[in-house]
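Hi R.,

Here are the chain sequences for the assembly we discussed:
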Amino acid sequence: MKIIAPILLLFTSILMASGQDLDSEAPGKKSWLIPDHMKVQFAGNIGFLSVGAGYLHGNDKLETDLYAGFLPKSIGGDHIISLTTKMTYSPWKFAINEEYTVIPFSIGPYLSYSFGSQFDTLLPNEYPKGYYWWATSLRFGAFVGGRVQMDLGAQQRVKSFDFYYELGTYDLEFLSYMQNQKSLQISDIFSLALGVKLRLH
Amino acid sequence: MKNPILFTVLTLACTACFEYNPNQIILEDDEKNLTSKNIALIQKKPAPETIRFVLMGDTQRFYDETEDFVKSINQYDNIDFVIHAGDISDFGLAQEFQWVHEIMSKVKFPYLTVIGNHDLLANGRKVYNEMYGALDYSFEYGDYKFIMLNTNSREYEFDGTIPDLIWLKNQLEDNPENKKVIVISHIPPFDGDFDPDLEEAYAKLLADDPNVLFSLHGHRHSFSDDEYYDDGVRYFVTTTTQKGGYAIVTLAPNDAQIEVVNY
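And here is the predicted structure of the full complex:
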């Protein structure tokens, strides 16, 4: 839990910064804390719905996001809150017209933490060293995807809506597939996520 | 969505392709309450004079090898049921339980399980509860009573409650017809993952009951067969499907045998 406190703090500060009145900020003096974009994602093993904020960097090709996700018990059989950091690398952009841009390929890793007393980050004391080698609270995953960007105009508060999809898997599923290629299909371990990105002014 | 037909097709095709959290528990109806369903299936057939069941286990992350087990076991016709000695899953994920159940469903005979230590990880306990049922349960077939016990003490920090010896004692006492008793659990009492404070009491409970035939287990990924405490109770441990082995237990009227099979 100690690891989580600074992450929560960072996340709260991003949200608070993004909540500031944009009009009071002089142009060009945007605080680095204010995220470049917000995202809302459905599925993708980081929550039923996840809300994220993040930054664009690396020549405008790299996004780094922090998501808070939740899964209600009525849908997922258990109520689970999770925090996820995700990176998205999108090397190519094709403008279709003034309004639409296609970003055909994205790839990236993510690390997701699930809250709950049934999940451990460090092996509890009652186990000999190395008894279980993975943390049940932390999942490392990766995805490929793509998106379509719809520009609303540079002067708008939200500069663009991006609609994205991702096909992702995570460490434990991937390992299971690698060791069982006769009985498991690649489709068994990849699942779909859909999301919207709001590029902020 | 502009195209309602496309939307419907995508939605139908994709009910299974969204995953919300690795620890989600979203099961189909035919993946629920498997213990009571399969006990009913077993008992539907009148008990033969000689009962024969298979003891296998530790399928954790060994799907390919478990498929081989199914092929091997389906060559038989005279098996009454299969018992999975625990560690159905490796990481306690519903997805793994579902994969294993899909494979085990291809076995010609009904199967029952006991819970293993890996099955208690993350949300595994909840998954097991929903998919199979109670962690401790018993059933009778013919002249035999089978007691299925959770012995994964380490997963409960050796707090003295697991295995539940009070429940076990009640089960042994609740046997008015003096049926022969077989106790099945994942971790054998002489293993380091069994609560050391309860080992002696467990062995004594079994030894003091003249009806008890066997104490059957998995967990150790290798066969062992011994009258471990020299008290008349035979302790048998089966291997993992990864190593291509299982045991066939034959309960004839005056003779009970355990035979090791390697495939």
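The interface with chain B takes residues 42-48, 69, 71, 75-78, 80, 82, 114, 116, 118-119, 124, 126-127, 132, 134, 136, 139, 170, 172-173, 175-176, 179-184, 188, 191-193 of chain A (CB under 8 Å). Residues 34-122+137-200 of chain A form a domain with the Porin fold (CATH 2.40.160.20).

Let me know if anything looks off.

Best,
T.
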